[in-house]
Design a protein that fits this description.
Immunoglobulin-like, elongated, five-stranded antiparallel sheet, eight-stranded mixed sheet, 2 helices
């Protein structure tokens, strides 16, 4: 006897078959809850962390980086405003209140501004001045002020006047007008030197790799800082021995006063001087050779000679020496033209004249020549006769 199978009934809840129900399970898993909603961002710029202050003349130059991100690590949206605040004697019991000295529109990135000091703060006694920056968003809200940067109030040294540069054999002589005040401000002098020669044409990487020789010496620095008057006495000039012949340089100068205030060593700088430019051309000949001596040399008729020697020069750009000869008579009077014996400079301080004629009397003199072709005045003469063998 066969019993009929159980009839299939719809699911009691959904009214769907078990197969359709199975298809819905993954869909339900995929629609999980998104979690708690996040609060909207306040769009507060991050706090400035690199504020610096530098006293130059009667003003303070402020530099900082305006942040590009918010405290929520998102890009800053909308206009930003920087508020610059100043406080006098911040580390003392008589510290003044923070005063807003400037509000300016800023954009993310390097930012700078100038605080022109009131006359009271540009005269001695010197005092410590603190600055801070606060960045506000378009709604007028801020994440807080920056850390403090310090500068010095007081008398800044005067601007250097009549700066001039002169090329000399030993380098560039830089001179200026000394302070004329009856009570000069104690300061050192700093000079900035920049190479202003015309740059060479740029080459492609392939050209440079194929044709450029291996550079065995470091490249010349484009900017050099020099100092004069380290004992706080204004020397009125200095010699730049590091300047190289053939280069064109531009110089500027500043006086720098150093003070200690509230545990900080600070500088009060004068404005930079008017720039001067000079070509350190090599037009200076080497020193005249000294100690020229002669002696007949050789032992046979084939190697008879007159040997010369002298004191070597110390110039770093010395190329060598040129030897001159002139025949003279028994009375020491010239008897013919002066002849240059070597077309290529002699490197060492010695020369052998193998062209002298036995029985003839000669006058010899020597000059020094540098790599730029500058030739010195001749040395003192020396006379010699090559005896008959």
């Amino acid at each position: 006897m066969k019993f009929p199978g159980k009839p299939r009934h719809p699911h009691p809840v959904t009214g769907l078959g078990t197969g359709a129900l199975a298809l819905l399970i993954p869909l339900a898993v995929g629609c999980a809850s998104p979690g708690n909603p996040r609060p909207p961002t306040l769009n507060l710029s991050e706090v400035v962390t690199d504020l610096t202050a530098e006293r130059i003349g009667s003003q303070v130059q402020l530099h900082w980086t305006t942040p590009s991100r918010t405290t929520d690590r998102l890009d800053v949206v909308g206009n930003l405003t920087a508020e610059v605040c100043r406080q006098i004697n911040p580390t003392s019991s008589s510290a003044g209140a923070w005063v807003t000295v400037q509000r300016l529109s800023v954009h993310p990135g390097p930012t700078q501004t100038i605080d022109p000091l009131p006359q009271l703060l540009t005269a001695d006694p010197a005092a410590l001045v603190a600055y801070r920056i606060q960045i506000f968003n378009v709604a007028g809200r801020s994440a807080g002020p920056s850390g403090q940067a310090f500068a010095a109030a007081g008398t800044a040294p005067p601007t250097i006047a009549q700066l001039r540069a002169t090329a000399t054999k030993d380098g560039a002589v830089i001179e200026w007008l000394r302070q004329t005040s009856a009570t000069p401000v104690a300061s050192t002098v700093e000079l900035d030197r920049v190479i202003s020669s015309a740059p060479t044409p740029e080459k492609t990487h392939a050209q440079s790799a194929a044709k450029q020789p291996l550079q065995l010496t470091p490249p010349k620095p484009s900017e050099v800082h020099l100092q004069a008057g380290k004992d706080l006495a204004d020397p009125g000039g200095t010699l730049d021995r590091t300047a190289q012949k053939g280069e064109t340089y531009t110089y500027t100068a500043q006086r720098v006063r150093s003070v200690k205030l509230g545990g900080h060593t600070l500088e009060l700088r004068s404005p930079k001087s008017i720039a001067v430019t000079m070509l350190l051309s090599d037009t200076f000949p080497p020193q005249v050779p000294t100690g020229l001596a002669s002696v007949p040399g050789g032992t046979t008729s084939a190697d008879r000679s007159i040997d010369l020697s002298w004191q070597p020069g110390a110039e770093t750009d010395l190329a060598g020496y040129i030897v001159y000869r002139q025949e003279i008579n028994a009375d020491g009077q010239p008897q013919g033209p002066t002849i240059r014996l070597n077309q290529t400079p002699v490197v060492g301080p010695a020369f052998r004249d193998l062209t002298a004629t036995p029985g003839h009397r000669y006058t010899y003199r020597v000059t020094a020549i540098d790599t730029a072709g500058n030739e010195s005045q001749p040395s003192a003469d020396v006379q010699e006769i090559l005896r008959e063998p």
